[in-house]
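From the shared-data thread, chain only:
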Amino acid sequence: MRVSSRLLASAVDKRAAELGLKIPAAAAPAANYLPWVRSGNLVYISGQIPKTEQNELLKGKLGQGCSLDEGKAAARLCCLHLVGQMKVACGGDLDKVKKIVRVEGFVNSSDDFGDHPAIINGCSDLLVDIFGAEVGAHSRFAVGCNSLPFGVAVEIGAIVEVE
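Structure, as tokens:
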């Protein structure tokens, strides 16, 4: 008897579960744009914001009331939402992700805050934990900005190579 591959969890899903992570359902866009676009083998994922399972946003400005740990937690949550979008783009099979090519990180920060890379490490480290270094290691940028949508602390987009 043949079992549908859609019923079996991917190795990436299993690794995420072993890490105690829950990949959220892909969020619908908040405006007139697509959550992701595939062109050839590349998937361009729109910026993901840190929204909890309780539908609460992790808001704040780094360097002005929002701690490094809170910022990293926001970046990790953005990462999980990126993975949720990847899952949809891959037809439910995260094993089809061949390479995280680029992470694009924006940090809501005060003018004198300079630890943007440390915040986006929350996402980068989690991608390597979930996908392994060969697939998960990526190029990236981590920039500070004066504000982000809805006052969130972090927004992160990505470019991913898939089968």
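DSSP finds four helices and five strands in the chain.
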